[in-house]
Specification:
- This protein is of the alpha/beta class.
- The chain contains 10 helices and 10 strands.
- α6 links the parallel β6 and β7.
- The protein is elongated and about 55 Å long.
- About 10% of the residues have low confidence.
């Protein structure tokens, strides 16, 4: 092989190697795949529209990650879900990034005449809630227990897969009342009326976020989390009705 051909062969081989290495690396500007609680749908999309999102019930997303779903970041509406994955080595150490509150919503027409949460006990109500494994469903059970109203669960006509489904059914008048997050109620404020849950009956609603251990782009995933925790991220959450990061209990 003459010198010219040898040089060309080396150059071609080097190019193939560089291309192979580059293709094996995660793309710096490639969108992340973020699995996030349904209640974060609007705020996450408006905060960073460049990412790929999969929104749903936190428990369902947890199961998907356990089954190998290709997520980079997981944001849950309850610490239970992130902490279980962390113990299993499937996500890195979770951090709390915001909080929320529960509210009871009724259709604007309010056919059952609900003015107080206690009316759920005395009136013939078609109650819509999320399933007990869904974070908002578990928080609903906490509110009813604290208020001595667990008996109204006999009036439940539908158990939904996530908070957005509960919100949608009440907004469309397919139920008389439903428990949702305050942030979800805001999104349909022209279609529903909010009945406040007393502060003393509120559950401790904390959201946690973590890098998924299988992610091939952990640096970008951590950068997304850092941006959510930044002043800009916290302002976006606050503007959407979420609460500031709660202080750890003493």
């Amino acid at each position: 092989m003459n010198t010219r051909l040898a040089t060309l062969a080396v150059a071609l081989l080097a190019g193939v190697c560089v291309a192979a290495v580059a293709s094996a690396r995660p793309q710096a500007n490639a969108p992340l795949t973020i699995y996030a609680a349904a209640s974060l749908t609007d705020v996450f999309r408006s905060f960073d529209s460049a990412q790929n999102y999969s929104f749903g019930a936190s428990n369902a997303l947890e199961t998907q990650i356990r089954n190998g779903a290709p997520a980079d970041v997981y944001a849950s509406a309850a610490p239970l879900n992130t902490q279980r994955l962390h113990r299993a080595g499937l996500v890195e150490k979770p951090v709390t990034f915001t909080a929320n509150r529960l509210a009871l919503i009724v259709p604007r027409s309010n056919p059952a005449g609900i003015r107080s949460i206690y009316d759920l006990r005395s009136k013939p109500v078609k109650l819509v809630v999320a399933g007990p494994a869904v974070p908002v469903g578990g928080y609903t059970l906490t509110v009813l227990r604290k208020m001595g109203l667990s008996s109204v669960l006999s009036k439940v006509v539908s158990r939904e897969s996530d908070v957005r489904a509960v919100t949608g059914k009440i907004a469309l008048g397919q139920g008389d009342a439903g428990f949702v997050y305050v942030t979800d109620a805001r999104a349909v404020s022209d279609q529903v009326t909010v009945v406040r849950v007393p502060a003393w009956a509120q559950p401790r609603v904390r959201y946690e976020i973590a890098v998924v251990s299988r992610s091939s782009n952990k640096a970008a995933a951590q950068a997304f989390i850092t941006s959510v925790l930044s002043a800009r991220g916290q302002t976006a959450l606050k503007n959407a009705g979420f609460l500031a990061i709660p202080k750890a209990p003493a």
